[in-house]
Specification:
Number of strands: 2
GO molecular function, one term: iron ion binding
Number of domains: 2
Radius of gyration: 18 Å
Pfam families: HypD
Largest sheet: 2 strands, antiparallel
Low-confidence stretches: none
Protein name: Hydrogenase formation protein HypD
Family: Belongs to the HypD family.
Strand content: 15-25%
Keywords: Iron, Metal-binding
């Protein structure tokens, strides 16, 4: 990677737990500002609480889909309530998301 950028990232950030939508909190999977940069930490300066795992819409299987234990075709919301025009979970939001790929290519990848 870009050595100059990696050096700056190492100076500015520490590795910390992160909350991943559909999965929950994973240790050592995120970056947080080092104490010397606390003045720029919006979570602390604005008393934003981000420690609770995000809640998924009832029926959304995105967490299981991300983990590989379910497929989009097993989700009752897929292509009915949840579409690229009306994404319910993160798997449909991005064109690279698993559900979006299934939606556009019919699950016939490979």
């Amino acid at each position: 990677g870009n050595l100059a950028a990696l050096k700056i990232m190492d100076e500015v950030f520490d590795i910390c737990p992160a909350n991943w939508r559909g999965i929950g909190i994973l240790p050592e999977s995120g970056l947080c500002l080092k104490p010397v940069f606390a003045a720029f930490d919006a979570e602390k300066n604005f008393e934003i609480k981000l420690s609770e795992p995000s809640r998924e819409t009832p029926g959304c299987l995105c967490g299981e889909i991300i983990k590989g234990t379910r497929t989009p075709l097993e989700c009752k919301l897929f292509s009915k309530v949840c579409t690229p025009e009306n994404p319910v979970g993160p798997c449909m939001v991005s064109s690279e998301g698993t559900c979006a790929a299934y939606y556009h290519y019919g699950g016939k990848l490979g």
